[in-house]
Amino acid sequence: MTTLLLIRHGETPWNVLAKVQGCQNIALSETGKAQASLLSERLNGAFTAVYTSPLHRAFETAEIICKPTQLSPIPLEALKEVDFGSWEGLTFKEISKLYPTHFNTWLTDELTGPMYDGDGSIQNVSRRAKACIYSIVQKHPNETIVMVSHGGLIKSALIGLFDWKMNMYHHFALGNTCITTIRFDEAQRPMLVSLNDTTHLNTPVTAV
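Structure (tokenized):
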């Protein structure tokens, strides 16, 4: 079995404001850094490679995870967040008012999940994420690998890996620094082991 730990980045100021970040290069908040430190303590270096989105909030989370090891995070463009285009910087409440028709279609369409602009659809992101994951899994048979990315990208990846309908994107949530564990057998068939695991955050979070 190859074990993949899909990890969402720590909290950012825009997370607190409920703004869509997309490809905007927002850094971690102090709380986000503390969350990443708790995650690093939990993982304790029990992995062989760390891949990450190059966006600041993910890359910094990956750097903190790597601290107990000699590893350095490997940035991959394919792990960047969904490009939400014109919606970035807005809340979903604002988007629903400014783009009501496009927003409703994005919420309900099962086949492609079309977007107003940016990446164009959830399906496009799903294909990108799935291809990236399989290429990495092939390089690390029987290892445990970490991928640090974003909520939208990870949800899209799961849709691609498990052939879910595109509107599944809107039916589950992923918290900051959550771990989603997937195992791949020798035929690279994926099995979802855990989703949105944030048990490391049961420890009180303080600024670092």
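DSSP finds seven helices and six strands in the chain. The CA atoms of residues 131 and 187 lie 15 Å apart.
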